[in-house]
Specification:
Length: 101
């Protein structure tokens, strides 16, 4: 699992470094994964301390939230969840990524 995990961590890190504002669906698609597979991997990366998740407070259309994709969180608001999650590498994750590059 380590080789596969490190490969995915490197790809996730590269996408996060691109500073693109992506939905989880688009992010998963960029990795050639189903959305549920991507969420599982992302949760593992968070539990291992390689990726950090932050939750933005009440999302309202027209507000310039950090990491906003300009679609006002789309499905998140439709499903009644008024918050938006953003992800970044932790120092630990960055160190692993740089050692793999």
């Amino acid at each position: 699992m380590v080789v596969g995990y490190n490969f995915l961590l490197r790809r996730v890190a590269a996408i996060l470094d691109s500073k693109e504002n992506l939905t989880t669906s688009t992010f998963a698609s960029n990795l050639n994964l189903r959305q549920d597979e991507f969420r599982d991997i992302l949760n593992i990366m968070i539990k291992k301390g390689d990726v950090e998740c932050t939750v933005e407070g009440q999302v309202e259309c027209g507000v310039n939230c950090s990491g906003c994709s300009k679609i006002c969180a789309g499905a998140e608001l439709i499903n009644g969840r008024n918050s938006m999650k953003s992800y970044k590498l932790t120092e630990k994750g960055r160190a692993i990524y740089e050692s793999l590059s």
